[in-house]
Design goal:
This protein is of the alpha/beta class. It is built from eleven helices and eight strands. It has an eight-stranded mixed beta sheet with strand order 3-4-2-5-1-6-7-8, sandwiched between helices. β7, α8 and β8 form a beta-alpha-beta unit. α2 crosses α10. The radius of gyration is 18 Å and the shape is globular.
Length: 279
């Protein structure tokens, strides 16, 4: 696969000129706050472990919950010891929800949200096993738990963690309106997700596909030199920030990058491109 010019480069929020930057924040914020009639399902996954899927999912979930006037549901389907639940401040057995307490046919938001951990408008559902360090849920488990309650949450963000099976990834795509593919910010990481994008695009009910390069190694200069070929998906970049993995407040540029990712995933890639949030 050729990833050399003619090409573009991964976009990092915060690299615009002053006037463009002001417009970016206005439009990105508007997209995140967009009223949603039913429920928008966002799936976050990576092809390799440690790429930053849980950090990005947590960052997008917390940012969305702060900016939206409606509740947000964060679902941990990765089942990892230090996954989404850990990133959101839950520890030990609290990272796993007893799904037997979920309402099978809730008639109100109160019934749907009753057993879920909550921080402000951000609600948390942890799938997995309370005594296992790695117990990823499959799409059937996710659907059984999320389908009855998901309609009460305008935004549902699921951390799927590392997924390698193409059939499982296809199932995730069919269950989502937006799929966020996380990869290390290097040529190998990009090539892996670039090979997956066309397959997801050919799904009958094609979800928006967004590629996010996470600079976990801190090699920002090297990541910025990656050139992209004809990749039919927005490619964004989140720079190195140790605070992300530690659950601390990220730096300003990291917050801007997460705002950009959230705007594309929630508002839709086409609308984000139309108003200049991505280019």
């Amino acid at each position: 696969m050729t990833l050399i010019s003619p090409a573009r480069v991964p976009v990092t929020a915060g690299t615009w000129r002053w006037g463009e930057g002001q417009q970016f924040f206005v439009e990105a914020d508007r997209l995140v706050r967009t009223p949603i009639a039913t429920s928008r399902r966002v799936g976050v996954l990576s092809l390799v472990g440690g790429a930053g899927a849980s950090s990005v999912a947590a960052g997008v979930a917390m940012l969305s919950a702060r900016r939206r006037s409606s509740p947000v549901l964060a679902v941990d389907a990765a089942g990892a010891q230090y996954g989404l639940g850990h990133q959101l401040g839950h520890r030990g057995v609290d990272t796993v929800t007893n799904v037997e307490t979920l309402a099978a046919d809730p008639q109100s938001f109160a019934e749907a949200s009753f057993p879920l951990a909550r921080s402000g408008s951000l609600h948390y559902l942890g799938l997995g096993h309370p005594h296992s360090a790695s117990w990823p849920a499959d799409s059937r488990e996710w659907h059984a738990s999320v389908a009855p309650i998901g309609r009460f949450f305008p935004v549902v963000i699921t951390d799927w963690g590392r997924r390698r099976d193409l059939h499982a990834i296809a199932d995730i795509s069919r269950a989502s309106h937006s799929v966020c593919l996380i990869a290390p910010a290097d040529r190998t990481g990009l090539e892996q997700v670039a090979a997956l994008v066309p397959a997801l695009r050919h799904e009958p009910a094609s979800a928006d596909v967004v590629v996010v390069l996470v600079d976990r190694s801190g090699d920002g200069a090297g990541a910025s030199r990656i050139h992209l070929g004809n990749l039919d998906a927005p490619v964004l970049r989140v720079g190195f920030d140790s605070a992300l993995s530690q659950g601390s407040a990220p730096r300003r540029r990291t917050r801007a990058a997460l705002l950009q990712v959230a705007a594309v995933l929630i508002g839709g890639a086409a609308q984000a491109a139309h108003v200049g949030v991505i280019r």
